[in-house]
Here is the input.
Amino acid sequence: MLNKNSSEDTLRSLGLMTLGSRLKRLGERLQAEVQPILSELAPPVAAGQHPLLAALSKHGALTVGELAALLGVAQPGITRAVGQLAGIGLVAVTTAAEDGRRRLVSLSPDGVAFVAAAREGVWLRVEKAVADLCAGFGDELLAHIGSIEDGLARKPLTARAVEERQDDLA
Here is the structure.
């Protein structure tokens, strides 16, 4: 029987097998903790949508597919976020002049102002707070995460597991 006062963290105790679950849990916690800071901005925008706004600010008008590729997010998620951001007036969706089948997403004038306010205010404070949390190992952590992402791009986990199984059978 489980001791309800137990402080065991099962995900942590399972090691690398649950790395994805731990990273997801950590990401969700960080986004939940940053949301009150981001809520100082008007209109309210979910933490997960700020990178989309930053990408549009950096790169200009992009298609949904280009946004998905830049952010490493599935197109349906980008389409949903674009719809929500268009609904509150922060992005505009237009048809590309050279190809009427392509829809371009760009910051609206209100979106440009929103990003400027976010960048000067809350984004900088969030970055500093996360840097404080990661004091002394932030750059190393980002390098390790990059290595994991690059490794998965070179060879997916499923391929690695198949190789392990073949090695076990040999």
In short: The first helix runs from residue 10 to 13. The chain has a mean pLDDT of 92. The CA atoms of residues 35 and 47 lie 6 Å apart. The beta strands are 62-63, 91-95, 103-107.
